[in-house]
UniProtKB/TrEMBL annotation:
<feature type="transmembrane region" description="Helical">
    <location>
        <begin position="243"/>
        <end position="264"/>
    </location>
</feature>
<dbReference type="Pfam" id="PF06966">
    <property type="entry name" value="DUF1295"/>
</dbReference>
<feature type="transmembrane region" description="Helical">
    <location>
        <begin position="137"/>
        <end position="160"/>
    </location>
</feature>
<feature type="transmembrane region" description="Helical">
    <location>
        <begin position="219"/>
        <end position="237"/>
    </location>
</feature>
<keyword id="KW-0812">Transmembrane</keyword>
<feature type="transmembrane region" description="Helical">
    <location>
        <begin position="69"/>
        <end position="88"/>
    </location>
</feature>
<feature type="transmembrane region" description="Helical">
    <location>
        <begin position="42"/>
        <end position="62"/>
    </location>
</feature>
<protein>
    <recommendedName>
        <fullName>Steroid 5-alpha reductase C-terminal domain-containing protein</fullName>
    </recommendedName>
</protein>
<keyword id="KW-1133">Transmembrane helix</keyword>
<dbReference type="InterPro" id="IPR010721">
    <property type="entry name" value="UstE-like"/>
</dbReference>
<feature type="transmembrane region" description="Helical">
    <location>
        <begin position="172"/>
        <end position="188"/>
    </location>
</feature>
<dbReference type="GO" id="GO:0016020">
    <property type="term" value="C:membrane"/>
</dbReference>
<keyword id="KW-0472">Membrane</keyword>
<feature type="transmembrane region" description="Helical">
    <location>
        <begin position="94"/>
        <end position="116"/>
    </location>
</feature>
Amino acid sequence: MVWLDEYMQCLSSLMTAGVTHMRTLLQSSSKEGGRSVLDDNYLAITAIVTVLYQFSFFLIAAGCKFDKVTDFAGSTNFVILALLTAILHNTWYFRQIVLTVLVGIWGVRLALFLLFRILQWGEDRRFDDKRENLLKFAAFWIIQAVWVWTVSLPVTIVNASDRNPDIQAADIVGWVLWFVGALTEAVADQQKLAFKNNPANKGKWCDAGLWGFTRHPNYFGEILLWWGIFIAATPVLKGGQWAVIAGPIFITAVLLFLSGIPLLEASADKRYGGLAEYRRYKTRTSPLVPLPPSVYGNLPSWVKKFLLLELPLYNSKLTD
C-alpha cells in the first residue's frame, strides 16, 4: 500500500507546517500581556479544525458515495487534535507527551485497521439507508465531529494547561486502563476480522476468542481506554475543567445506547435470531463486560440487567 504511506507522509508534513504557521500567526496577533486571541483551553481552535476536517471528508464521501474515508476521518481527527494542542502550547510536559502518544497510538492503529477492513469489504453497510439521503448522511458526519471534539476534551485540556504536578497514582491507573482497553480493542478487532475472512465461518456470528466472553469486546476496550485517558488527566484539572468528564461519558453513552451496541445487536438479531444456538449464545455471553460463559449464563436476570447492562434495548429485534 505505497499510496497510503505516501498519503500519511504528506499529511504529516502538511500538518506540521500548518501548525507551525498557525502558531506563528497566533503569537503575532496576541493581545497585550501575551494572552492568545484564542481561548486558553484551545476549545475554539479544536472545534474549528474538527469541523473543517470532517467537512472536507464529508464532501468526498457524499460527492463520490465513497465509504472508505469515513472511519479513517474520525480516527485520524483525534490524532490531529492531540498533536495540534501539544504543538500550539509547546510546553511538552511528560504527562502531555504520554497522553498525546497514547491517543496517537490508538488513533493510528484504529484508522489503519478500519481502512484495511473497508478496502476488503468494499462498502459500509451502516450507510445503506443514508447514501441517497443527504440530510441523514450529513447528520452522521455532524455526530462524528461532535464525538471527536467531545471525547478529545481531556487531552485538549491537559495539553493546553500550564499546570504540571508530579506523576500521581491517577496517572498510573489511567495509563494501565488505557493499555488494557487498547489491547482488548486491538485483539478483538483482529479476532473478528480473521473470523469473518475464514470461508468456513460464512453465515456465522463471531464467538471466537474474546467474543466468547463478551458480545462486544472492542467496545468494552474503547470505553475502558477513554476512561483511562480521563483518569490520567485528572491531576491537571481544576474548577470548570472537570467538565471534560463529558468525554468518556459521551463515548460510553454513544456505544451503549445509540450507534454502538444497539445497532449491532439489532442487525445480528435480524440475521441470526431464528437460530437456537445464537439465542443460547446471547443468554450465556455478557453484552459488554468480559465474563466466562459459565458464570454469566447462571447469573440471575436482575444482575444481568442492572449490573451488567443486559438491556431490553439489546433484544428489541429478537422475535419469539
